[in-house]
Amino acid sequence: MLDAGSLMPMGRWITPAPSPRRYDTWFFVAAAPDGHVYEHDADETVASVWIRPLDALAAAREQRIELIYPTYRSMQALAAYTSSAELLEAVDAVWREDSEPLQVVDDHQGWMLHLDAVVDDPDLARDALDHATFTVSRPGRS
Predict the structure, then answer these.
(1) Distance CA 113, CA 134 (A)
(2) Stated pTM of the model
(3) Per-residue pLDDT, 93
(4) Tens digit of each residue's pLDDT (9 = 90 or more) over 31-48
């Protein structure tokens, strides 16, 4: 069982106002307990897999999996870290040292933890456009 006290907020997203259903969702990171076996709820989530963030981004680009925009942005942030221990240390440091740890990233609909690490991946800027919340289609794309 996961210790709720070990959860560290990493992001918050609110569905845009014109959406018929609105959500206010927080994203957290935590170390998985030893021997942890994950299981999805088969209602809101339809599959479970352990995957490296860069691999998840590649799978989404290749349309093998679907990631909604807040999850995509979270994967972009996580991709800069080579291990979960490195990520958890960085997240903890931001919460201890930054007076405003969450920064606005999308017109007051998204807030992400102010992490300094940046992954060296030229596709990430394009990814942000391809998975933008408000983008229905881009010129030249269907």
Answers:
(1) 22
(2) 0.75
(3) 92
(4) 888 887 777 777 877 777
